[in-house]
Amino acid sequence: MLGPLGRFPQRVARAVNARLRRGRERLLELRYGVSTAEHVYHEDLGLDTENRVWHDPSDWIAIRKALAPLRVGPDDVFVDFGSGLGRALIVASTLPFRRVVGVELAAELNTRARRNLVRSRIRRRAGKVEVITADALEWPIPPDLTVAYLYCPFTGDVFRRVIDKLLESLDENPRPLRLVYNYPFEHNQLLRTGRLRVLSVIPATWPRKTSAADVIVTYLVLPRDEALAAEYIARFPRRIGRSEEWLGEYEPGFALEKPARLGGVVAERPAGKP
Ligand SMILES: C[S@@+](CC[C@H](N)C(=O)[O-])C[C@H]1O[C@@H](n2cnc3c(N)ncnc32)[C@H](O)[C@@H]1O
Questions:
Q1: What residues make up the domain containing 181?
Q2: How many domains does the chain have?
Q3: CA-nearest residue, atom 4 of ligand 1
Q4: pLDDT exceeding 90 applies to what percent of the chain?
Q5: How confident is the model over 197-228, as pLDDT tens digits?
Q6: Across-strand partners of 100?
Q7: What confidence score (pLDDT) does residue 274 get?
Q8: d(CA 152, ligand 1 centre) in Å
Q9: Going by CA atoms, what residue is nearest to atom 10 of ligand 1?
């Protein structure tokens, strides 16, 4: 039931939240000496857009909160599928991964990501950090990849084919593999493979937005061998908290939306449809 002021207080709270986020974002870019905040659209780079999502960076603090609890070590290799201007790579490189790899379609973004990686004022703990220009569909999954990060880089058929490749790689080289999915537009598609178990769900922004889609879900990707799967399930326990709904098919709709000059809504997942 809305009070006499209608939705006014919610709108004010949202506007204040958005300003806080933008202010904090600017401060962190200055602090790290990088430039990763821009939205970049494939249309403006002359690239095909079908099932591909434009550049929008992960939230600095949320990505850290998603990656730090994974307790990675020198056996772990991180890959950001659709690494854009390199923000998630910068955060991952502060953790003791053996390798941190970015795979990005747009060469122009990669040039800037490399510059950001060189300039970033952070304490780097990862071994090698590299950025590769490739379509994730064509890129061979490394057999030692253990943490896959996706900030909603692609949808539909492209997403399905990349996940199939990831599962094939796990079948060929069984290993502990975790998938960290920011803005999990294709959550239901992932669950339908029957090979993923939700480990945690955290807000994808700070301060937190109210949209149901603004979360980062971490999954354990299960090997086919049941004994090995049981071993990994025991090794990587769930920390779900209040987000039980992400354990099953996710109902509420959410959308991917570009500016009006590029056509507005790109893809919408209507409520009640997987
Ligand atoms: C939402 S941005 C995420 C940027 C970065 N991962 C981060 O978290 O800050 C998605 C990125 O995926 C890239 N992308 C889209 N389709 C791709 C594909 N098929 N192969 C590789 N990169 C792709 C886009 O160019 C864009 O930079």
A1: 42-269
A2: 1
A3: 84
A4: 75
A5: 999 999 998 777 667 788 999 999 999 999 99
A6: 78, 129
A7: 45
A8: 7
A9: 153
